[in-house]
Amino acid sequence: MKVVSFFSGIGGLDKGFSDAGYEVIWANDFDKYAVETYKANYDNTIVLGDINAIALDEIPDCDVIIGGFPCQPFSMMGEQRGFEDARGTLFFRIAEVIKDKIDKGHKPKVIVLENVKALRTHDHGRTFSTIKRILEEDLGYKVYDEILNSADHGVPQTRNRTYIVCFANEDVEFSFPEKEVLTKTLQDVLEQDVDPKYFLSEKILPTILSNGTGGYHAKSEIDLKVARPLCATMAKMHRACQDNYVTQRGKVRRLTPRECARLQGFDDSFVIPVSDCQAYKQFGNAVTVNVSKAVAESVRTSLENVGEWA
Question: What is this structure's pTM?
Answer without folding.
Answer: 0.93
